[in-house]
Amino acid sequence: RVMYTITKWIEHKLGLKVNATKTHITRPNKLKYLGFGFYYDTKDKKYCARPHASSIQRFKRKLKQLTIRKNTMALNERIRQLNQVIRGWINYYSICNMKTHMMNIDKHLRTRLRVIIWKQWKVPSKR
């Protein structure tokens, strides 16, 4: 009943079309909106934004794709591509609180890059 009145108001007053299959009323911490998730900060007594868990997983998959060991590309080119992806992701989610997520991703990415450098160095002519 509440949903119908809100939908009716949005469609008639604002002149917008409401997609009933996508639209629902819920608490912000159960919502995913444009890749953002929300949580309630008890210290500040307000809802804050963070990247949604599925967005973080998609970002990790992209980084993993760029740091596959068997992918033969120069290290400078690989780092350039990683910088593009990371810079774009951080700029998009710049309003979020994501320090712990980024620290974990950074730690994992450094390890993967170290493995790539070790793999490139470990050839018979370089021993």
SSE layout:
Layout: H1 2-14, E1 36-41, E2 46-51, H2 53-66, H3 75-92, H4 99-121
Helix pairs in contact: 2-3, 2-4
Any key phrases for this structure?
mainly alpha, about 10% strand, 4 helices, about 130 residues, 2 domains
Distance between the termini: 74 Å
User: Sheet bearing the most strands, described?
Assistant: 2 strands, antiparallel
Arithmetic mean of pLDDT? 86
Shape: elongated
Work out the radius of gyration: 22 Å
Spans of at least 5 consecutive residues with low confidence: none
Q: Treating each run of at least 4 consecutive H or I residues as one helix, how many helices?
A: 4
Coarse structural class: mainly alpha
**Total count of domains:** 2
Number of strands: 2
> Helix fraction?
40-55%
Spatial order of strands in the largest sheet: 1-2
Helix-strand topology string? HEEHHH
User: Proportion of β residues?
Assistant: 5-15%
